[in-house]
Design brief:
Immunoglobulin-like; five-stranded antiparallel sheet; 2 helices; 7% helix
Amino acid sequence: MLGGAAPSATDPRATACAAPDAPAGPRLLVTVTGARRVAGNVTISLYGPRQEAFLTRTGRLARQRIPLRSTSADACFALSAPGDYAIAVYHDENDDHDFNRTLIGLPAEGYGFSNDAPTTVGLPAFGDVRFTVPPGQSSMIIHLRY
């Protein structure tokens, strides 16, 4: 487990990510919690180990948009290899596929990062969001901030 409590073996989230027909290689179950409304979707973007690629469209390895049916959402990523990764998420409340900001540039929608990295002013340091995925299945919980 990489952050927060891991789902139990009987939890459907864990069994979906560990399904027998899942591709070989590590799998990462990401649970995003704390949505203030059940509306829109949660967009989860996965990045590799290169700091300069973090939060760039060309640096993104995978992205999933999960429709919200409760105040949390789960996504399973099949990874090519163990190693270092980083995640950024946002709650796309109006489902416009864009991370909306206020007139002064502050986030208008919920957001979060792997390791629940702090964001007091600006973006978190890459070292705070990077995490290592071992072989097999791992899980991470990311709490949205508004």
